[in-house]
Every structure is written in C-alpha cells, then in structure tokens.
Amino acid sequence: MSLRAGIFVDNIPKPYPKWFKEKYKDSIIFPEDTGCICSLTSFSRLSYQLEEDIQLVLIEQEAPYSLECLYLHESGGITKIIITTKDIKYYEAPADSYREVPEIFAGYGG
After folding, report:
1. For residue 66, how many C-alpha atoms fall within 13 Å in the half-sphere facing its CB?
2. Which of 47, 105, 55, 45 minimizes the C-alpha distance to 81?
C-alpha cells in the first residue's frame, strides 16, 4: 500500500544517524546539521517502517522526550504521530472534520 503525503517531523537535538539517512535518502529531505526532516514524496507502508525507525533513533540517542510527526495526506486528512522510546501513538483528523476559520489559528482548545 502506498501513502502519498507530506511529512514534517520535529527537530531532534542530534543529527539522524547514517543508517537512517541511507535508508530514507530517496524519500526524505534532510536539511544540513539539523534533526528536522520533511518529505513531499510517497511512502510504501510495506517497505518502510518510518515511525518505528524514528523510535529506534530515539532509543539509540537515549532521548528523554517525545517527537511529533505530521502526515498531510493528499486526501486532505492529517495524521499526527507521537513517538517516544516506549510507544508510538497515532491520531487522525479526517478531511471532512475541518471547520472554517477567518485566519491561521493555532490556539486550539478554548
């Protein structure tokens, strides 16, 4: 199964390891000297285990924090993924659940 989506991942304090960059070099853009990654390509969910590999990076780096990823799907939906060294949690926002707002609004919750 293929997934066409843009992915945006939080910064991590250390660069991604060589094995990770090599595995995803054709699908992910790695800005120089940062732990931030993004992509505008397709992923095959059968051949890549991106979230699990990011979790392995966090384990290798003994990260005491969580990392958030956002998939922006071509269908309009959004998947938010929270990755820690212990678990991976997925949250979905389907395209039909959007509401109109007068401008960019990031103060959700009240």
Report:
1. 10
2. 55
pLDDT, one tens digit for every residue, the chain (110 residues): 455 667 777 777 788 889 988 988 877 777 766 666 666 555 555 445 888 998 999 999 998 888 888 877 777 788 888 999 999 999 988 778 877 777 766 555 54
Indicate the residue type of 100: E
**Residue 28 is which amino acid?**
I
Domain-wise residue ranges, the chain: 2-95
DSSP category for residue 58: H
CA distance 28 to 32: 13
What are the residues whose beta carbons fall under 8 Å from the beta carbon of 22, sequence distance 6 or more? none
d(CA 40, CA 38): 7
pTM, rounded to two decimals: 0.76
State the DSSP H helix or E strand holding residue 23, giving kind and residue range, or none if neither: helix 18-23
